[in-house]
Amino acid sequence: MIHRPLLAKIIGGVLLCLVxxxxxxxxxxxxxxxxxxxxxxxxxxxxxxxxxxxNPVGLALVTSVDYRRVFGVDARxxxxxxxxxxxxxxxxxxxxxxxxxxxxxxxxxFAILRVEANAFRFFGTLGGLLRFPTRGSTFDDDTFARLRxxxxxxxxxxxxxxxxxxxxxxxxxxxxxxTVALYHFNDPGPYLYEGEYDTLLARxxxxxxxxxxxxxxxxxxxxxxxxxxGPAYEVTRTFETHLNRERVGGAVFWMPMETLGAVxxxxxxxxxGTNITDPNRxxxxxxxxxxxxxxx
Length: 296
Hints:
Blueprint: H1 7-25, E1 42-54, E2 58-73, E3 80-93, E4 96-108, E5 111-123, E6 131-132, H2 141-146, E7 153-169, E8 172-185, E9 191-194, E10 199-202, E11 204-222, E12 225-238, E13 244-255, E14 259-260, E15 263-277, E16 285-295
Antiparallel strand pairs: 1-2, 1-16, 2-3, 3-4, 4-5, 5-7, 6-9, 7-8, 8-11, 9-10, 11-12, 12-13, 13-15, 14-15, 15-16
């Protein structure tokens, strides 16, 4: 059974937060050589990565192309203080295809606002798309094994709004991300398995997700080389099916170098923890890992 990972969104958001924070963190010691010029006012860039997770198992490839118009740059540190961005992405997993578009703005250095629209094409195999008769149906690994071969080909749409606040004090970074997502499945249901957040949704439903991370920065020799470690807490609530999940764990983000051949900012992200409360996996251990990079 292959499920959709949510790591593509996590690592993209964390990277955006960390690049700004890393550059701001250097203060008077910031490298002002031509190696680290201020960001261009207008720029295209791409992002690509491979992501996987355990409990439930997931695997995906993601790529995106983005255009950013920068409205403000800190003259001393060289990081962006305001911008507007638009982009398009494609995520491919064994059970579905997800194209999407987004618009993102940075109205202040501590806040990111983003809206996005995505379509999903379920291939009718490897778990996408599965129907369930009631909102209280079990959807654990044994159930997925029993329903193998009963997947349906279908389309779905999602619109989401994401707000992120981030604050830095010394070597500590606090990041809180809140997501509200609305779904419509072009399938009779009545209830359907949503793999990214590992939950059941009605044909027209929504999800509220709040994710809090507190990072310690033990290593940060230059703006685009950084290591962060720290605890993470996440709560997920669905609107119509009234399913809730709480999980706690630890996260690591490592950007070891500024360039690697033709790519920029190669990065590794990992998150391991346990489900405090969950409809099917209370007490179970989960894991997420990803490798990604950018091109300009």
